[in-house]
Specification:
- This protein is of the alpha+beta class and 247 residues long.
- The protein has two domains: 140 residues, Sandwich (Jelly Rolls); 99 residues, Orthogonal Bundle (Arc Repressor Mutant, subunit A).
- It is 40% helix and 25% strand.
- The protein has eight helices and 14 strands.
- The strands form four sheets. It has a four-stranded antiparallel beta sheet.
- A hairpin with a 5-residue loop joins strand 4 and strand 5.
- It starts with a helix and ends with a strand.
- The C terminus is likely disordered.
């Protein structure tokens, strides 16, 4: 089995494709590798393909007119991104960068259109993907409008624990390493504010951090403070997912 076909088979959206469909999508797809901190695609590029992250880590960002970055989220191996090209094949709006050395499978949008027409599971999977990401962005926008910087940061840490949490002796360790500026870009705040709030949380015994590493030492207390459920039980790290350093 080729590496490209292996990666496609391990994407849950393509799990129920027939052998013929899988061979067709493999023959039409391309594989590209990107070194850390290089763009996978830029705003205004033609949106003629959807990407499957095979290895590494990518971040999706929006760049303001004055060049400031707002991080919308992170993509892990096995996830599709650039999916809005399926619905609007004009130009990209967001910016996607490889955080770590990454490999992607580029799937032509017309092939995704064909698969969605042929296979209801693919259509449903893509629809769910778009819906989940829209919910995340809407939740972050509501947090930005109505919550304090402290509450936004706590919600973010809990969200990251759900997505990137790993067991450690002292609590839930975030497998993705984020600088204070990265955290600020994720919650629409400043690096100085994030530094102050993290210091408060550390003094309260809720987090431990250092050198871009964050551990939620008391996730239940953190969740209680913002009236939400604690992070789900961290899953064992998948073989393809190393510990990443962002920034």
């Amino acid at each position: 089995m080729s590496g490209k076909l292996w990666f496609l088979k391990h994407c849950n959206i393509f799990e129920r494709l027939t052998s013929e469909q899988m061979q067709r999508i493999e023959s039409r797809s391309r594989v590209r590798s990107f070194s850390a901190h290089t763009p996978i695609y830029l705003p205004a590029e033609k949106a003629d393909s959807v990407f499957l992250l095979a290895k590494g880590l990518a971040k999706v960002s929006h760049l303001t007119a004055d060049g400031k970055e707002s991080i919308l989220g992170f993509i892990e191996p096995g996830e599709l991104f650039g999916e809005l090209a399926i619905f609007d094949g004009e130009e990209r709006d967001e910016y996607v960068e490889a955080v770590a050395s990454s490999t992607v499978v580029m799937i032509p949008t017309e092939e995704l259109h064909r698969l969605m027409a042929e296979n209801a599971d693919v259509a449903l999977g893509v629809t769910k993907l778009v819906g989940v990401r829209r919910q995340r962005i809407e939740r972050r926008l509501k947090n930005l409008l109505f919550l304090s910087s402290r509450e936004r940061l706590v919600h973010l840490l809990l969200d990251l624990a759900d997505q990137f949490g790993a067991h450690s002796e002292s609590g839930i360790r975030l497998r993705v390493r984020l600088s204070h500026q990265d955290l600020a870009n994720l919650i629409g705040s400043t690096r100085e504010t994030v530094t102050v709030v993290l210091g408060q949380l550390r003094s309260e015994g809720s987090v431990a951090c250092g050198r871009c590493k964050v551990v939620l030492t008391d996730p239940v207390k953190l969740a209680r403070g913002v009236s939400r459920q604690p992070p789900s039980k961290p899953r064992p790290s998948a073989p393809l997912v190393p510990t990443f350093a962002v920034g």
